[in-house]
Amino acid sequence: MELVLSIVFGAWFVASALFYGYMVRKGEKE
Amino acid sequence: MNTYLIGVIVALIVFITVGVIAGREVKDTNDYYVAGRRAPIILIVGSLIASFLSTGAFLGDTGEVYGGFFMGIVIVGILQASGYVYGANLFGKYIRRAKVNTVPEYFGKRFSSKRLRMLSSITLMFAVTAYMLSAMQGISTLMTSITGLDYKICVIIAWLSFTIFTVYSGSKGVLITDTIMFLIFLVAALIGIPYVVSAAGGWNEAITSLAQNTTRPGIIAWTNNLDYMYPTGVQNLVWAIVYGIVWAMVVMVSPWQTSRYLMAKDEHTVQRSAIWASMGVVTVTTALYFTAAFIYKINPNIESQSTAIIWGAMNLMPLLIGVVMLTGILSAGVSSASTFLSLIGSSLTNDILASKQTDDVKQNVKIARIGMAVVSVVVLVLAFFNPPQIFWIMYFGGTVIASAWGVVALTSVWSRRMSEGAAFWGMLLGFLGCVIPKTYSALSGVTLPIYLDPFFIGIVMSIIGMVIGNKVKKASLADIAEYEKLHVRPASEKDPEKDKKTHNLMYLYVVFGVALGLFFVVFYALPYMSAMG
């Protein structure tokens, strides 16, 4: 479980980065 | 006079001096409330992190880790830090577009509503005062530990340390002092680790020993220590995820975070600052949490767990490094307190009293300063009679704002159909839905089950309030017009070069995420699993 949580920490940040990239592109079209 | 005290006094004198010098630049209320809306990334990032990380993180959270709740606090830390990315893009960028002085003014303007502006200002004052008291208690506890002076005297010194420059310079001074203080506590959080690791017998030895610990079993396991909060690992995990979401919501919508975006020089600054602030918060908190766990390995008998880091600074680090560490903790407290005071003062004069701006610019600034000074005296009186319980009070402030403002704030940006009634009742019921059970729980000593956490009750009540409010009063044409104005990108923001730079920061954040995951795998999970066979 400790290993799973450690991987999830990194994955969550990568997912947040993708959200950021999407929102920046979306904002450019406003 | 001991060296630690000299370090602390020098730091306080520097903060006050810098703040007062910055105050001389204040020409009008625009400078006083929102630093002229010209702040660059470094000042926004510095102020975001310095306002968020307080003595609660340095003393309260590390105390929880020391007490046996390492993974619970780490999970909260990871989730809350990611809140910057969501907050800046879903809320912060848009309230900056509204060109307001305070966040309550945004709510009032968005729905052309005086009562909503008043309500958001009152909820702001309630939550921020609670949070501010915890920061003052933290600073005072630290000073008492260092100097041996009476706690009440330390409360007055703590109050003076941030009140002087905040009242005089407003946001202009707070942004600069926040950034200086952030740099100090960033260095402090990182500089002490090697000495603590060394005193604990090396990194792997420390992890192995903590994994196999029998006096506080599970201290660094995913379950946490089962005597500390809930009796099962799953309950503790759920608590951590819930509070991680609460604090991510605080980062996303709280006035002490989102008001920083009002001061940014453009929307690119808002978005880029969020990425840097997120990485900064994770770096500082992760360093602190490992330090606190290692201190337990070295000395499991520290009487008051919230002083674990102070003990480490004074007993495990060389004198100069210890001074930097303690000054860093002090900086974290003072920087948050100065932001909180400026928020309450600004909201009092700008939203509650709604003082009319006259042609006399100096008179306007004078009124704002008087409002801030009055608030600071009230805070001093409250702090003077308040018992030192850092962790609990801080969570009270954060949860309330997440419940009252969370759904309303995000929906105000993203729902065309949302009406003034929905926003008002959503905020009011969200506030009461959190405060009433939280107060009951505190007064009766009854621990509510995790699924009845006041945050959840508040969020559910807020949604109910919004649905009913929208049924009673539909969105007016003016509400819809305000919504549409929010979604029109100002011409000044359209710059392909800047767009590209802002977008490319995503890649840095991806690399940071991968590095963070790898760090936990290599330096936590693998040695832990090896120790447990």
Describe this structure in words.
The complex is a heterodimer of chains A (30) and B (533). Helices cover 90% and strands 0% of the residues of chain A. Chain A has 30 residues and is an all-alpha fold. With 533 residues, chain B is mainly α. Helices cover 79% and strands 0% of the residues of chain B. The A-B interface holds A 1-3, 5-7, 9-14, 16-21, 23-25, 27-28, 30 and B 71, 75, 78-79, 82, 85-86, 89-90, 93, 221-222, 267, 271, 274-275, 278, 487-489, 499, 502-503, 505-507, 509-510, 512-518, 520-521, 524-526, 528-529.
- Unreliable stretches of chain B, pLDDT < 50, 5 or more residues? none
Instruction: Detail the poorly predicted runs of chain A.
Output: none
The most extensive interface between chains reads:
A-B, 24 and 42 residues
Q: What is the β-strand count of chain A? A: 0
Give the SSE string of chain B.
HHHHHHHHHHHHHHHHHHHHH
Query: Based on DSSP secondary structure assignment, what is the total number of beta strands of chain B?
Result: 0
Biggest sheet statistics of chain B:
none
Distance between the termini of chain A: 43 Å
Element order, helices and strands of chain A?
H
Strand % of chain B is under 5%
Number of helix segments of chain A? Answer: 1
Rounded mean pLDDT of chain B is: 91
The percentage helix of chain A is over 70%
Q: Which shape of chain B, going by the Cα principal axes?
A: globular
Give me the Rg of chain B, rounded: 23 Å
Q: Which quaternary structure do these chains form? A: heterodimer
